[in-house]
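Worked example 3 (structure in, sequence out).
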């Protein structure tokens, strides 16, 4: 968790808000664990008005770094003070639907944790714990991803590539991301390799 330099005002405001916030009704069913839980929309509805009344806003924004999406959830107070947490979401390559589901999951757990409400039945947490400690199933080799998913990964790779400041950094970037590059659709792979070549030439001339 991260905070502003001072948190006395937001801490006091959050304490007042938590005195009013009630755990929302578990109105959704988890088909995997046969248990009930609070979905993201219901959780936001349960806390937003009370937080706003106490001068607290909710900010949730995903970012991409090194082919990994993370989510920052921040409670910002009218005084300028804030409290935030960062939640790991998903790594590329991934399908758009998987990305959307993972972000929703991360938003839900991050918000509930910062505000201090419960969103799951105990059985759900227990079953999830059992699942997490089970030995991982052997995964088949990943095929080359399809065009829509490849575009998402390509964009992320292209954005990180332009951060290279020297030929050596560009070469190291390529080595670090070789697996992701090889998994791209052929069109995006060719485009990225041309970009790598152009950037290396530009950096070599500037050296």
């Amino acid at each position: 968790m991260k905070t502003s330099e001072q948190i006395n005002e937001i801490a006091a405001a959050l304490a007042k808000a938590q005195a009013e916030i009630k755990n929302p009704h578990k109105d959704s069913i988890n088909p995997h664990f046969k248990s009930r839980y609070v979905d993201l929309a219901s959780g936001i509805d349960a806390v937003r008005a009370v937080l706003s009344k106490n001068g607290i806003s909710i900010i949730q924004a995903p970012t991409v770094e090194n082919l990994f999406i993370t989510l920052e959830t921040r409670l910002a107070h009218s005084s300028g003070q804030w409290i935030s947490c960062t939640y790991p979401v998903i790594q590329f390559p991934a399908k758009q639907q998987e990305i959307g589901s993972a972000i929703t999951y991360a938003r839900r757990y991050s918000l509930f944790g910062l505000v201090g409400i419960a969103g799951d039945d105990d059985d759900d947490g227990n079953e999830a714990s059992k699942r997490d400690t089970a030995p991982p199933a052997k995964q088949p080799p990943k095929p080359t991803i399809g065009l829509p998913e490849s575009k998402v990964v390509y964009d992320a790779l292209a954005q990180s590539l332009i951060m290279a400041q020297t030929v050596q950094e560009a070469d190291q970037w390529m080595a670090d991301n070789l697996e992701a590059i090889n998994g791209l659709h052929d069109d995006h792979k060719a485009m990225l390799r041309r970009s790598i070549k152009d950037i290396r030439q530009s950096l070599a001339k500037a050296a």
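Notes: The chain has eight helices and six strands. Residues 28-35, 121-136, 138-143 have pLDDT under 50 and may be disordered.
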